[in-house]
Amino acid sequence: MGPRLKLFAPLLIFIALAVFLARGLQLDPQELPSALIDQPLPAFTLPDLHSGEMLTRESVLGQPALFNVWATWCISCRVEHPYLQTLAEQGVAIYGINYKDDDDAAIEWLDTLGDPYIANIVDGQGRLGVDLGVYGAPETYFVDAQGVVRYRHVGVIDERLWRTRLAAIYAELGGTVAPAGDTP
Known about the structure:
One of its GO terms (molecular function) is disulfide oxidoreductase activity. The chain is an alpha/beta fold. The protein is elongated. 38% of the residues lie in helices and 20% in strands. The protein starts with a helix and ends in a 12-residue tail after the last helix. The chain has five helices and eight strands, in the order αββββαβαβαββα. The chain has helices at residues 3-25, 75-89, 103-113, 127-132, 159-172, and strands at 39-40, 45-47, 54-56, 65-70, 94-99, 120-123, 139-143, 148-154. The protein has one domain: 3-Layer(aba) Sandwich (Glutaredoxin), CATH 3.40.30. β2 (45-47) and β3 form a beta hairpin.
């Protein structure tokens, strides 16, 4: 590299970094990439929160479903919870993954706020969360009837988001939703 070109090296490095950072700022944090998209839901054997019965990947397959990672220590989960209850009442199949939480606190939470989940997988050590690539709670994975992860949403699911984006994804998986106010 000639002496004159060395003068421009810091400028070129700065421009390259600026382009890299600008691209990163354009990413939607709720659409974090996941290595699990189009891959099978990870294998697991974990207890159900209420019954203690061991649940496995195979025991939760057979219909399109949402797998919602939640915890009582998660403030955003409390915001999201009433809408998950609404979705469950409309027939959306939802499994809970109670992530690094206290079982008694989780049971009390569900008894108080309602339980939208078909079953609640206790992930006390966070191993299933690690296999899923969980960054934190809430996160929701859309899984087809064969157990393949098709979509991942990071953050709160609310009515607007469901209506404008997520309902269509659930429908593509073959999931059905009763009209608001109707229960299956």
